[in-house]
From TrEMBL:
Pathway: Amino-acid biosynthesis; L-valine biosynthesis; L-valine from pyruvate: step 1/4; Amino-acid biosynthesis; L-isoleucine biosynthesis; L-isoleucine from 2-oxobutanoate: step 1/4
InterPro entries according to UniProt: Acetalactate_synth_ssu, Acetolactate_synth/TF_NikR_C, Acetolactate_synth_ssu_C, ACT-like_dom_sf, ACT_dom, AHAS_ACT, AHAS_small-like_ACT
Keywords (A to Z) from UniProt: Amino-acid biosynthesis, Branched-chain amino acid biosynthesis, Transferase
Complex formation: Dimer of large and small chains.
Pfam families named among the record's database cross-references: ACT_AHAS_ss, ALS_ss_C
Classification via PROSITE patterns: ACT (PS51671)
Identification of the protein by name: Acetolactate synthase small subunit
Reactions it catalyzes: 2 pyruvate + H(+) = (2S)-2-acetolactate + CO2
GO MF terms, alphabetically ordered: acetolactate synthase activity; acetolactate synthase regulator activity
Species: Maritimibacter fusiformis
Amino acid sequence: MAALNIKKGSTRKSAYELRDPNAEIYERHTLAVLVDNEAGVLARVIGLFSGRGYNIESLTVAEVDHTGHMSRITIVTTGTPAVIEQIKAQLGRIVPVHEVHDLTVEGASVERELALCKVSGTGDKRVEALRLADIFRANVVDSTLESFVFEITGTPEKIDAFTDLMRPLGLVESARTGVAALSRGAQ
């Protein structure tokens, strides 16, 4: 196994960014999976991904029908078009799965994510953090004399941009919910 040498001061890349650029094209897809809300279902769905080496970039799960005991799993994953089709087919064969929708190919959809970001700083950095938060429509949900906790919602790209700008201003930590997505329109 090859070791990855990272020099001090260099930026670390995710292992998923080390793919061969000449290989097949990887696509990002958002899948909405309607399942029975019962013990072990999420483990079976996740087991499908881990057992075959598929990556999950984002995962959210919540009960969406209390009377019908149904939950919705929203998964953001990447892969070649063939791998994405294989994932959808394999998800559809899991017994407690009722529906699998690929929101990326089924038409327009809306994606949102929530993040909490703790930024520590004083003086000009504190003022700049508040200014940028206002531009990004982030809300201050906690404040001390040395730090803020911002709440921001939006697309994953918006949250990435916000955290990238907050990093030099004293970003201490962040927590993200993962993507929630729905298809647009009446259906």
